[in-house]
Amino acid sequence: MIRIFNHYVSKMAFLLLLLELGILLSATILAGELLPPRHHHPGHVGGRYLTSIAFTVVILFSMSALGMYQHTLRAGVRSTLIRLIPSFALGFLLMHALIMLRPDMYMGRASIGLVFAIGATGVTLTRIILVRSAASSFIGPRLLFVGGGPLARDCIAQVAARTGAHPSRVVGCVQVEGEEVCVPEEMMLAQGEPLLDMARRHGVTEIVVALANRRGGQFPVHQLLECALRGMRVIDAATFFEREASQIRIDSLQPSYLIYGGGFDQSFWRAFVKRAFDLAASLVILICALPVMLLAALAIWFQDGGPVFYSQERVGRDGRAFRVLKFRSMRIDAEAAGTPTWAAQNDPRVTRVGRIIRALRIDELPQILNVLRGEMSFVGPRPERAYFVEQLAAHVPYYEIRHRIKPGITGLAQVRYHYGASVDDAIKKLQYDLYYVKNNSLFLDMLILIDTVRVVLSGNGAR
């Protein structure tokens, strides 16, 4: 993993992006040389390069929006083509929309077909080569865990969940006296040799300290220090989960990690950039989505004649209350008893129109007005109701940290985890929110927006 603007990105995904960037740019330039347009447009040379850049950006965006750069993706030829065909189809539609705005970008029907053929072939071959190379056991990182308890078990499960090209490989675990063993017995390494010698013998590239309690006299602090001084990378479980899962795990979190771990940028420059991004993204999406919003409003009104919008008090930055605006997706008497209730799977209170607009996230679009008023950001933790906030803050450690920034229409927890409908779900989503609060940046906001498109297109997570 590499860190870009405080966010961890897979090395292989980044390499794949660079390779495909070059392939798609070359495909457009090559097609323009082999099949030049019959009719010359003024400024055609500049238009050709503009077309190359636009085509590359559009295709990369389409592939990202359909999950082709997800770190869990490890696909063969068939699976790659299944994702690649709709990605290029979406790119084709977006390119035609751009050509309508800039006719000088039109290369001719034959050239466009050649561009897509070369680009699709190059992308497919590149991914096949990377998948084949993933079979090489010496390429992926080799991890050694100090500890064999619940935390080590969760770390190993996280490694198993990452099935992308060149995944990490677990060499084994070193038991610490007094700790309960929760990992399979075959993963426990034999004791009796120094930790550094053991790591070198197994070709370990990184040691992860997966111990919930480090205060006992059995904690191998001197051996770990020796490993670090000899050039072996040593990290703790909190850093491991932050890097591998984009989470700050509550069960492995020490207050010192939040104090000394960096991040939590609240500078004037970050606030200025985020506000400018919020305004630009909100206005663009509001203009583009206006026809859809009008159709949704008519459908809601025709269904039962009730109000189109639904206003509800939520908790915002620094605990300040505000009223969030959404399209109504439930019956008018959804909470007739007066007690706030978590949304459930196949919730009977949701109307027929409500199920559709929830699946497509159309019900969230009126919150753009909250963003324009400065009550919300476009990207941030999901705003919760005060009733649930009081319950969660009383039982969940560090819950109030998520209120140090403005809530968002979309966020890391929304695109990485399904719809939260319980305290346990709230804890899991909080771990993503803490990561975002600590590492938020314009770069991460852009990645979350692309992931949001993927979630909307797939319909995942709605209730």
From TrEMBL:
Pfam family, one: Bac_transf
Coiled coil feature spans: none
Protein's membrane topology: Multi-pass membrane protein
Domain of life from the UniProt record: Bacteria
Mitochondrion found in the keyword field: no
Domain Bacterial sugar transferase span(s) in chain numbering: 274-457
InterPro entries reported in the protein's UniProt record: Bact_transf, EPS_sugar_tfrase, Sugar_tfrase_EpsB_2
Transmembrane segments: 47-69, 81-101, 107-130, 279-302
Cellular component per GO, a single term: membrane
Subcellular location: Membrane
Record key words, sorted: Membrane, Transferase, Transmembrane, Transmembrane helix
MF annotations from Gene Ontology: phosphotransferase activity, for other substituted phosphate groups
Keyword Magnesium: no
Family per record: Belongs to the bacterial sugar transferase family.
Protein name: TIGR03013 family PEP-CTERM/XrtA system glycosyltransferase
